[in-house]
Amino acid sequence: MTTKATTDENSPEGQRKHLSAAGLRARGWTPAMVRQLLGEPDLLRSHPHFHSAPQTRLYSIERVEAAEQSEEFRAASAVAARRSAAARAAALRRRREVLTRIAALPLQVPRLAPGTLAAQAVRHRNRREEERRSWRGSHGGRPAAVTGAATVEGAAADVLDRWKVDYLRHRVTRDEGSLDENALHGRIGRAAAEELLRRRVYAAIAKAYPELARECERRLRE
């Protein structure tokens, strides 16, 4: 029968006589197994600091150990193990499929004259800065302006290279919609896919524009 925990039951000595859902998971129990073999908890313990939080469900260790000796528990454990192995295999297969797709996608880096690339990069940077200010509701300084194919008014010498790489990376992922990292959200192996995509994009930019290879390498080291 389920009862509310008292102060004594919340003590370390009392807690050793019961297991929480996390403790059951560590012993190989699944939620379905808990519902099937244990049913209702033996105790409900309130959160010590947040009284509005759901109560912790505690199960008697004696009852848990008795259930673990049953044939029903062994059968349910075997089924859970098979399902877990199948899920891991499926996840690994989907991860490989995503990586294979990313590795095979063609990358088209636009080839632009130095002055055109600089102008496009600065426009792209100014547009993004304007969007950021709009989101924050703030006002910024005047937009950047190109004074030559390799310099930006009031900026360090390497700043334009950063803006060029930003622009080219945006162009590659925009023109190839399937390359957009946002499309990988929720996919199996997302982190590995994003890293592979990132490396492929920067390698393609460095190949198309050797003068930007240093900036691409810097980003890959970050």
TrEMBL record:
Source taxonomy: Bacteria, Bacillati, Actinomycetota, Actinomycetes, Kitasatosporales
Chain residue ranges for the region called Disordered: 1-24, 120-145
Compositionally biased tracts (Polar residues): 1-13
UniProt-recorded name of the protein: Uncharacterized protein
Organism domain of life: Bacteria
